[in-house]
Amino acid sequence: MSIHTWKRMLPIVVLGLLLVACSSPGGGGATTTAPTSTTVRTAVPTDAPPTQIDTCPTLPFSSPDVYCYTPHQLRVAYGVESLIEHGFTGKGQTIVDIVSFGSPTLQQDMDMFDKQFGLPPITVQVIEPLKNVQPSDPNGDRSGWAGETELDVQIMHAIAPDAHIVVLVSPVAETEGIIGLPEFRALVKYSLDNHLGNIISQSWGASEVTLQDQVGQQEIQKWDTLFHQATTQQGITFFGSSGDNGASDFTDLKGTRLSSTPTTSFPADDPWITSVGGTSLVHSGSTLTETAWPDSGGGFSKFFPQPVYQKLLPAAVQDQLNQRRGVPDVSAAANPQTGLAFYFNGGWSLVGGTSASAPLWSGIAAIADQVAGHPLGFINLGLYKLATSSTYAQDFRDITAGNNTVHKSVTVPGYAAVAGWDPVTGLGTPNAEKLIPDLIAALKS
């Protein structure tokens, strides 16, 4: 996402609070105007056990297009709940979240979130290793990062309620270009050196347009080397938000101007990252409908060539990829109007953005590692094997409607969601109860 706002936090779209993803946190930012009513329509899966808390708190707005999801409902939607019922809750696994500044109300807000939904209480471990680094917040993004931090943690905990979560905090705001990237890289290295966890979630990003110079390319090369080593030698799984500005992204270091030509962002473009795009998830009665979220970042990297795993895709996709790394790999709910109930700074709202979909996948990965009994590490090879297998239709919900064309300060033609992989929703969204065992098997073969 982009925290600009939560720059990238990828929009963390927080409706009531009007929080947006920072370019840094996530991808771009998406905001939604809140209606004035005091009730909200809640999507309730028909198979929800009576012991589950499936009532959203009262929100400061309502609309026929607004759907509030509880943790249980989100788990049901993505095939996670049956795994939870069999004891696969992420227990024994640790997810590491990389952020700027963190949030001073993180633990108390988590306590309220857990109490509301009957989740097991969690003590989030917050570590600030960069004590000798001068703090810097040139764009005034501190409050946005606080929201990003809490969004990440609440989504992770909602999906994998027994996974441990470590938040690694930088005193420098990641914005665009290389600003904040050396410090974030130091946090990743700290996590690796201290074996903090097998899954690292990154709800932030910097536009490729702002990283084209020599300094930007040198920084990206350092990251790519680190990602390669961590995934292949240390069994780490990385997730990155694809962004919240559709087929475009920012051109300036403050994240205020969008590119008039298609672009994507780092680190979601790196081939050693599992890049996560966004969808709109809607229940109508007992029917679930999922389409591409229009602000989902997606496209083709100008920096990284096509990775070997994307060469498994059909010929028609190869023509579109044209030897370039395609983004994203997978997707999940990101539309802030169809989001998870989110508690932050004393109030409830809805939240979204690819800053939400990336930590959601991190929670699924924690459960997958528990099921496997070992870290799965680099999962992209397995994901794309499944895309060409007979199990694809049961492992993923293939998103075939919607696009990410940009109609904002600029108009940028985007890409359509189609059958199979596409540069908006990737391979689609997970059906975890089928995907996880099939992924484990695919990574062994």
Explain what you see.
It is built from 11 helices and 20 strands. The chain is of the alpha/beta class. The strands form 7 sheets. Strands 3, 4, 5, 6, 8, 10, 11 and 14 form an 8-stranded mixed sheet that branches. Strands 1-2 form a two-stranded antiparallel sheet. Helix 4 (142-159) links the parallel strand 4 and strand 5. Helix 5 (181-193) packs parallel to helix 6 (214-233).
Features:
single chain, 445 residues, alpha/beta, 8-stranded mixed sheet, two-stranded antiparallel sheet, 11 helices, 28% helix, 19% strand, globular
Rg (C-alpha, Å): 19 Å
Output the number of helix runs.
Answer: 11
End-to-end span in angstroms? 34 Å
Please count the beta strands (DSSP E, at least 2 residues each). 20
Secondary structure class reads alpha/beta
Question: Residue ranges: pLDDT <50 for 5 or more in a row?
Answer: 1-24, 26-51
Biggest β-sheet, characterized?
8 strands, mixed
Annotate the secondary structure layout.
Layout: E1 2-3, E2 7-8, H1 71-77, H2 81-85, E3 94-100, H3 106-117, E4 125-127, H4 142-159, E5 164-170, H5 181-193, E6 199-202, E7 206-207, H6 214-233, E8 237-241, E9 265-266, E10 274-284, E11 287-292, E12 299-305, H7 315-321, E13 324-327, E14 330-333, E15 340-344, E16 347-351, H8 354-372, H9 380-387, H10 392-395, E17 396-397, E18 406-407, E19 411-412, E20 429-430, H11 432-444
Parallel strand pairs: 3-5, 3-6, 4-5, 6-8, 8-10, 10-14
Antiparallel strand pairs: 1-2, 7-9, 10-11, 12-13, 15-16, 17-20, 18-19
Helix pairs in contact: 3-4, 4-8, 5-6, 8-11, 9-11
